[in-house]
Amino acid sequence: MILLTPGPTPVPDAIVRAMAQPMLPHRGEEFGALLGRVRPRLSEVFRTAGPVVAFAGSGTSAMESALWSLARPGDATCSLACGRFGERWGASLDRFAGLFGGGRARVHAPWGETTDLGSVAEALTPETSIVTVTQSETSAGAHTDLRAVVDVVRERAPGALVVADVVTGVAAIELEMDAWGVDVCVAASQKALMLPPGMGFVALGERAVERLRTSDSACPASMDLRWRLDAYENGTVANTPPVSLWYGLERSLEMVLSEGLEARWARVRGLAERVRGELASLGFTLAARAPVESVTAAFYPDGVDDSLRAVCAARGVTLAGGQDGWRGNLIRMSHMGAVDEAMTEAGLAAIREATHEAKRS
C-alpha cells in the first residue's frame, strides 16, 4: 500500500530498523548520550539556536502544552485560522480565557482563504500576549506566510509571542525560525519527520524561554514546559519518553540533514507542482487560494465523488478525504517525508484511472 495521506506518512525501513533496537532505561547513560546526539540536530532542522523540547504526545498536546505554559491569567490573545487546525488553537485559547480571563481576538478566514494581514493588524493591540498561526493548514492545503505574520505582530504587538503550528511545515517547506523571529514552533513526529505518531515537539526562541522563566501559568504538570525545559537543560527528560521513537528520530534527522533542508524543500515543491498540474488537467480545483507545498487539497470535478478514494485504495494507493464541512468533497495528497517521485506517480496514475472510470459511468 502506498500511503499518501498527510499524516501518518510512510516510515522508511531504515527508521523501522532503528526503532527495533533494544529498549533502554531512560535514566541511564546510554539514553543520555542519545539525547545529546539528537537534540542539536533537532534544533538544526527547526533552524533555531534554541532548545527543541520533545516528549510523548501528539501535535495537539504539543501545541496546548505551549499555549497553556506561556499564557498567563488575564493575557490578551489572538488566533489566526484558515482551516480546521487554526480553529482548534483558537478553541484552546477560548478554554484558557474562560478559566483565567483575558481578551480574545480572532482572525478566522473561510477555509482555504489567505490570511489577511490587514485584518491581523486590526485585531492586535499592544496588550496582545500570544498569537497563534498555522503555517501549513493540512485540512485545506493552505499556506500562511509565517514571516509576514511575524512582521505584523512585531509592529502592532511588540511584546506578543508568535506560536506557530509547523506540524506539516518543518522538514517539508521553508522554515527559518530564528531568522523570521518566530518565538515558538510546534510539530509532531508523523509528518515530514517520517516517524510513527506519538512524539510532540516544541521549539523555543529566546523570548519564549524568558517568558517561561517568569511565568505563573496554572498549567497541569503533565503539560508544563517549565518542567520539560528544566530537564532539557540538565541533559535529561522530565518523565518517561517514547524511547523507541527517539531511536527512530536519530535516524530520521540523519536522513533529513544528509539530504539537506533546501534540497528537501525543493523536492517537496517539485512533487506539489507535478500533482497540481495533473489534477488541474483532470478537472480538479485546488481548495486553497494560496496552496501549501506539503499537501495538496483539491475538490472533485463534476461526475466524480468520494468513491474515488476507495477505487484508488483498491489499486494500492491511500489518499485522505475532506474534513468537517468538506467531508466527501475533496482529496488530500501528501508530498512530505519519504514520499518520492515513484510514489507520487503511482498515486496520480490511480487518480487518473479512477477519474476516467467515474466520468464514463
Q: Can you tell me about this structure?
A:
The protein contains 13 helices and 15 strands. It is of the alpha/beta class. It folds into 2 domains: 106 residues, Aspartate Aminotransferase, domain 1, CATH 3.90.1150.10; 245 residues, Aspartate Aminotransferase, domain 2 (3-Layer(aba) Sandwich), CATH 3.40.640. A 7-stranded mixed sheet has the order 2-10-9-8-5-3-4, with helices on both faces. A 4-stranded antiparallel sheet has the order 11-12-15-14, with helices on one face. Strands 1-13 form a two-stranded parallel ribbon. Helix 2 packs across helix 10. The longest helix is centred in the last third of the chain and has 21 residues. It starts with a strand and ends with a helix. The model has no long low-confidence stretch (mean pLDDT 96).
What structural class results from the helix and strand content?
alpha/beta
The main sheet orders its strands as 2-10-9-8-5-3-4
What are the low-pLDDT stretches, counting only 5+ consecutive residues below 50?
none
Describe the oligomeric state of these chains in a short phrase: single chain
CATH overall fold name of the largest domain: Aspartate Aminotransferase, domain 2
Give the N-terminus to C-terminus distance in angstroms. 26 Å
Could you describe the largest sheet, including whether it forms a barrel?
7 strands, mixed
* Element-level helix/strand string: EHHEHEHEHEEEHEHEEHHHHEEHEEEH
Beta strand count:
15
Q: What is the CA-based Rg, rounded? A: 20 Å
Helix content: 40-55%
Shape: globular
- For the residues shown, what is the average pLDDT? 96
What amount of the residues lies in strands?
15-25%
